Amino acid sequence: MPSIQTFNDFMATTGPTYLTSADAVINEAVKNTYAFSKLLKNKATETTIQGGNEIRDVIMFDDSRTYDHYQPNDVFTWRNPQVTDTIKAPWRFSIDYMTWTDAEVELNTGETSGSTKVAYKRLKKIKEQRLWTSMTNGFEEDLWAPPSLTSMEVETGKLPYSLPYFLTELGRNLGGALGLRGLRPFTAATNTSTVMGLDPTVDQRWSNAVEAYGYNSGAGIATEPTAAGVEKTLTLNTTLAQGLASTITINPLFAAFDRMFMRLKYEPPATRAEYFEKDTLARQMIMTSRDGVQFYRRLLRLANDTLVNYQDAAYNNPTYSGIDVTYCSDLDTAAIFPAHSTTVADTFAGYDAVTAVSGAFSAFGTENGANTIATGPRYFFVNGNYLTPIFHAKRYFKTHEAMRHPNQPFTYVMPVDCWHNLFCNSRQRHGVVCPIPTL
To answer: Are 395 and 417 in contact (CB under 8 A)?
Structure first.
């Protein structure tokens, strides 16, 4: 029988056994989804990596029509229209870092070179994994950050533009071909004056499309109009009026999707097509929260969709016109929607009573928050051709040398910095389908 000393020697010389390999660390700090990476998918390097002191592009909003008809020997008056506007975004600077100490390294090494190598490999992997998880999660949260005039639009700000800065449900019914449009994003009890330097109330095509659908969560179960749509008259300052009282149609969700899809599809003419955008909607996305995906699935089930296996009630990867209705996990908790200082009644009367001029838009709320004006899922129609994360060629996730501070001689820091911003070069090719209570 082995002696107790033999067992003690065995315990002293045998290290812990890990289920996974030395460089495998299970990462539980992840998000369910990452929409930021979808905006980069299949984009050329020359599009996403740029230089210069700021990011710029040129847009034409108006053709300043010179087309006319004439009779022979007519006298003409010639014009030289100036039709372009410049949009620009400042560079934003982000940093993250790895740290380690002498003790952390030395106390994790073994007596042999082999065990030291294993310890170094594991420690290095943990440090790198934490860094890149932290940085990736930070970029994703920046994408869904609440709009801020001073932090995003102003050059001295620190935050990159977020997707809600470009796609807002706050707007007005401009009538005609423009229809219901999201103009200036709501930022902390006020509207911005400009978006990337341009005023959407002046250049009205510098705005996103908006469609409203009926969602009555206050009734105990989410319901929607069963007819073609319900007309509702908005007072002067409701969230979808913004100073222009009008009547809008609140549709069922599928009908709102139909209308939005047609509004966002631009087909070039058969001739002179080189002067028009060749947009095939190949990068079109529909982003929503978990509740948004679930509500869409519920409507598919109620409609007795027979295009899937009858025994499978999951409706995995639901689509609209071949476009995935994509779950974005940050939208479950993102406080990016206009909210009141007090609880808002989840009825049309409650919605219509909230005014902007009185300063009642005092905060941001989640999509189902008690103070949120019109609760329910939002569906963001995003065209990836016209919304792109841009990175500076000289500072694309640049890893710097390890530093040691004289006052902390046993601690090391290795920074990684990135210069970037989110750039939108067409707002009218994006849209938001937003809820309004109809009861």
So the answer is: yes
Residue 37 three-state SS: helix
Distance CA 64, CA 81 (A): 6
Place of tokens 């790198």: 128
Distances (CA, A) of 6 to 26, 272, 338, 439: 35, 88, 70, 80
DSSP, residue by residue, 44-71: -HHHHEE-SSSEEEEEE-----------
3-state DSSP assignment of residue 398: strand
Closest-CA residue to 422 (of 388, 386, 384, 395):
388
The mean-pLDDT minimum among 1-15, 65-79, 331-345 falls in: 1-15
Q: Which of 238, 202, 255 is nearest to 344 (CA)?
A: 238
Please give the single-letter amino acid code of residue 59. I
The 3-class SS string of 204-257 reads CCCCEEEEEEECCHHHCCCCCCCCCCEEEEECCCCCCCCCCCEEEEEECHHHHH
The mean pLDDT value for 40-51 works out to: 84
| 278, 303 Cβ separation under 8 angstroms | no
CB 131 within 8 Å of CB 97: yes
Residues 106 and 70: their CA atoms lie apart, in Å, by 88
Q: For residue 417, give both structure tokens.
A: 């910095």
